[in-house]
Amino acid sequence: QKEVEQNSGPLSVPEGAIASLNCTYSDRGSQSFFWYRQYSGKSPELIMFIYSNGDKEDGRFTAQLNKASQYVSLLIRDSQPSDSATYLCAVTGTASKLTFGTGTRLQVTL
Amino acid sequence: KAGVTQTPRYLIKTRGQQVTLSCSPISGHRSVSWYQQTPGQGLQFLFEYFSETQRNKGNFPGRFSGRQFSNSRSEMNVSTLELGDSALYLCASRLVTGGEKLFFGSGTQLSVL
Predict the structure, then answer these.
(1) 3-class state of residue A83 by DSSP
(2) Using one digit for the tens of pLDDT, what is the confidence trace for B14-64?
(3) pLDDT in tens, A2-42
């Protein structure tokens, strides 16, 4: 079992729709959870982080964390073509090492 | 505030050579991590340094090594290069090890011929 798992996609959503990206992790002691966005040919950029169970909203982005089920998700409301990118889920485990999933490619269509 | 700076941006080497990559973290950040990114494997953790000490290490062979200097700048070395070492090498910094946010540099694209 991979430490951090994501569906590779591509996830295709129409412009204006909600994109839902999911991530599961194996280390029950994980404390910190991050979402990075990576455009093709660019380095990852941090867009959301969450430490506690529940939801955290920032503009069009909402991160959701459920530690009991060991999953974290990212919702993007009113998706725009500029949101088309690969989204990487990252988790800090008990050894303080940040582990990344392989990413989900999101395509927002016109 | 300047971001994470990596040099060089591109590098072409041949098999058997060695290479050294450099990373300057964000001012005040004491932790530097290195990642290898390839299309098939995604972001693979190489190692993390904090206060000149290696704190974590990924599952890479001993040909991959690193170090951190007293000013928090870090270097990564790969000896006896193989074709499979062709990848984007990303450096990232954060204030300390742990749950703090990680910020990435632009990366060094290494091609091994």
Answers:
(1) helix
(2) 999 999 999 999 999 999 999 999 987 889 999 999 999 999 899 999 999
(3) 789 998 889 999 999 999 999 999 999 888 899 999 999 89
| Contact yes or no for B112/B15 (Cβ under 8 A) | yes
Distance (Å, whole) CA A20 – CA A17: 10
Which B residues, 3 through 62, put their C-beta within 8 Å of a C-beta on chain A?
Answer: 33, 35, 41-43, 45, 48, 55-56, 58
Q: Does the distance separating the beta carbons of B48 and A43 come in below 8 Å?
A: no
- Closest-CA distance of chain A to residue B104, Å: 6
Q: How far apart are CA B29 and CA B95, in angstroms?
A: 4
Kindly report the nearest CA distance between residue B42 and chain A, in angstroms: 5
B55/A43 Cβ within 8 A: no
Of A55, A60, A42, the residue nearest A103 (C-alpha): A42
| Percent above pLDDT 70 for chain B | 96
CA A28, chain centre distance (Å): 18
Q: Are A107 and A79 within 8 A, CB to CB?
A: no
